[in-house]
Sequence to fold (231 residues):
Amino acid sequence: MRAVVTGANRGIGLELVRQLQARGDVVEACVRDPGAATQLAALAGDRVRIHEVDVTRAATVEALAHALGDGAIDTLFNVAGSYGGPTQSLGQMAEDLELGDVATTFDINAMGPLRLSIALLPHLRRGTTKKLVHVTSGMGSIADNGSGGYYAYRMSKAALDMMSRSLAVDLRREGIISVVINPGWVQTDMGGPHAPTPVADSVRGILRETDAATLADSGEFLDWKGGRLPW
Fold:
């Protein structure tokens, strides 16, 4: 399998690269600053290629598509994301929002995956498994929001979920699968040290659900532990 992974410099993205490489897959790893991605650089080789991609900059996304040439991509993992700036909190009130932070978070968490998905559709059409896997969050679930706050993050992830659902509907006739998957509360820089789930466990679950996904699952909200979550 040949996969593209965004946000590959740390956390879930980096662990995806590790586990994909370990099982023999070819990985196109995308990061904003390759020079600072020292852990990723240690994995570079025949099966891991590093690309400079900022998901908010269309030119870098187009450069990635050009670098991939006429090759096929089996799975795109849209992992790159942002928590939404320093004002994000559980008790955050709407009037305290920095709207610039909200716009930036939307650009990264929702528009970024859309840019990648559109740019790499020709490569996915040439692939075998043809899967778009967007890493979302349970905090993007409208039905599960009983605590409020975290406006930028919640809103942008809900938008990502809707994007995936629309792609699933529009691309079903081509056999292309699009799903969002909740990785859980993970021990990463974003999740923090008190998160209950080791990143390696989360990624094993993400890969298990990705491998098992069929057209019957396309458009669904999957969970790393299995099953589906409410929108």
